[in-house]
């Protein structure tokens, strides 16, 4: 079976399991809605552009961490042996990465809609950098968090290890995402292309590292 066909079948299996369960995606979406509402109620003077930009990326990061953190938790015991014998490690990696990417984009879309609903006074003069940062940032977050989730799962499924490993790795990416959002809201960044290209570079580096190292981790 070709690699692309394996990726398709594994991704389809992930989506089928999530559709049957609905617990994980439901908890993530509840987290997004509750966070936006609580912050809105706490800020009596409303959301300004600075708060909008910071809150958007905070919710997206922690929502992505929760969603990606469980990527390999189900792949223990007999299921790990099944994948070990039948599936290519890269097929498994990319199926998880694509699934997490879809979830992250869903979180980002829901977060943006809710923030716009509660902060309609905040304008976004240049939405394109924010849109590109969301698309490319989702790829980077998915690649980093999926790979770290695999490391944590092979180390016994320790959630603390997931948090400790992922946080320093995503700091440069989050800085670039915040810069892109800052330009989109006309808050003082002069060149929007620089952070976008750097985000793309981080994405390619994260994917390359995952491709090289994941087969050794999974076969260990």
Q: Could you say which overall geometry the principal axes of the C-alpha atoms support?
A: globular
Major beta-sheet overview: none
Counted up, domains total 1
State the secondary-structure class. mainly alpha
- Straight-line N-to-C gap: 23 Å
Rg over CA atoms, rounded to whole Å, is: 18 Å
User: Beta-sheet strand percentage?
Assistant: under 5%
Quick check: average pLDDT?
81
The total count of strands amounts to: 0
Number of helices: 8
H-E order: HHHHHHHH
Spans of at least 5 consecutive residues whose pLDDT stays below 50 are none
Estimate the helix proportion, in percent.
Answer: over 70%
Description:
This protein has eight helices and no strands. With 220 residues, it is an all-alpha fold. The relative contact order is 0.14. It starts with a helix and ends with a helix. The chain has helices at residues 3-21, 23-42, 49-69, 78-86, 89-118, 127-154, 159-184, 193-219. It is globular. The chain has one domain (3-219). Helix 2 runs antiparallel to helix 3 (49-69), helix 6 (127-154) runs antiparallel to helix 7 and helix 7 (159-184) runs antiparallel to helix 8. The model has no long low-confidence stretch (mean pLDDT 81).
């Amino acid at each position: 079976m070709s690699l692309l066909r394996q990726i398709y079948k594994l991704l389809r299996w992930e989506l089928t399991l999530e559709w049957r369960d609905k617990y994980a995606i439901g908890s993530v979406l509840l987290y997004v809605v509750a966070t936006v509402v609580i912050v809105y109620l706490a800020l009596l003077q409303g959301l300004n552009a600075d708060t909008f930009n910071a809150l958007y990326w905070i919710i997206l990061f922690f929502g992505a961490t929760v969603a990606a953190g469980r990527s390999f938790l189900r792949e223990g015991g007999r299921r790990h042996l099944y994948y070990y014998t039948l599936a290519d490690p890269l097929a498994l990696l990319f199926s998880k990465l694509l699934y997490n990417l879809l979830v992250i984009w869903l979180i980002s879309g829901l977060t943006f809609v809710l923030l716009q609903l509660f902060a309609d006074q905040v304008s976004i003069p240049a939405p394109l950098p924010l849109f590109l940062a969301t698309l490319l940032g989702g790829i980077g977050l998915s690649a980093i968090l999926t790979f770290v989730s695999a490391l944590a799962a092979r180390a016994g499924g320790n959630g603390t290890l997931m948090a400790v490993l992922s946080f320093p790795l995503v700091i440069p990416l989050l800085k670039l995402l915040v810069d892109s959002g800052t330009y989109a809201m006309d808050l003082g960044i002069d060149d929007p292309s620089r952070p976008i290209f750097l985000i793309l570079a981080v994405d390619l580096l994260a994917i390359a590292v995952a491709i090289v190292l994941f087969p050794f981790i999974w076969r260990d």
